[in-house]
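To: structure desk
From: M.T.
Subject: fold request, one chain
Message: Could you run this one when you get a chance? Sequence is below, nothing fancy, just the single chain.
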Amino acid sequence: MLIDNHNRVINYVRLAVTDRCNLRCNYCMPEEGIAFSDSKSLLSIDEMKRLCNILVGQGVDKIRITGGEPFVRKDLMKLLAYITKLEGLKEVSITTNATLIGPHIEQLEDFGINSINVSLDAITPETFHRITRRDQFELVRENLMRLIESEIAVRINFIVLEGQNEEDIYEMLEFQRKHDVRVRFLEEMPFNGGSRNFRNLNWNHRKILEHIRGRYPDFEKLPAPLTSTSVNYKIPGHTGSFGIIPSFSRTFCGSCNRLRVTATGDLITCLYGKPVANLRTTLRSGLHDSFVEEALVRAVGSRAKDGFEAQEQFGPIFGSSMTSIGG
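Reply: Done. Structure tokens follow.
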């Protein structure tokens, strides 16, 4: 079992399978993209299988597959077929932009994927195009509806972007009124690959909630696990629910139970910190699994207390892109 220096049990890993993405969301990267990693730098499927085995052996029981856009990776389904059968792994989930997932939905159900988070910051075509710089709204909506009709739990991650998509907040709440989906509104984070300046945050979790209260004054708070990053609510008469994630305010850090592994094998113990080890190097060294285990134990044994301490410790990392950090 992995227990950090603040006595927090680490049982959740976000594993990025690629740093590439087929959208160009303006809060994530410049329109021309970023310097993506070459294929030799990425963890191979076999290396990720081995790593997942090691992680589960260390008590990790939840793995979320992220990117970039995971389905850009053509051999992704081989990894999912393998890890969904690992004994001791209770939950396998995926974060996706839903552009490429369509042909795989039935097989994902067969694998027993627990949940899928769809990154969708707009519910109207015009806003979608303005943010993503791509014209794929209808495809995303079609795949989203197919996911909602499947046996897989569906959540929508909606980053509130000042001056860009506030008008879609109410529209998104009307969508979850009709459909069994949890919409989670996130504070914007400054990991934009240098696409624009990020000086302060106006739309924080409090303002988002007050904005929602302006049209939907009656909602109830839902129970959530201590390790949840979102505060969740239910509006009477709505089929779905909504939550708010204070991703920039970082009010949930005290119960953080997660690690990140980037597509190139960097181990990140805090989103607001820098990599503390590279697992790819160890995996390719020919050394025994115990050396990877030791690297994990060392990393969790010196974690920052929260995102603010990590930011002070490592210095500014805001020029990074979320697609390279790992979703």
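Reply (cont.): The domain at 2-325 is CATH 3.20.20.70 (TIM Barrel). Let me know if you need anything else for the meeting.
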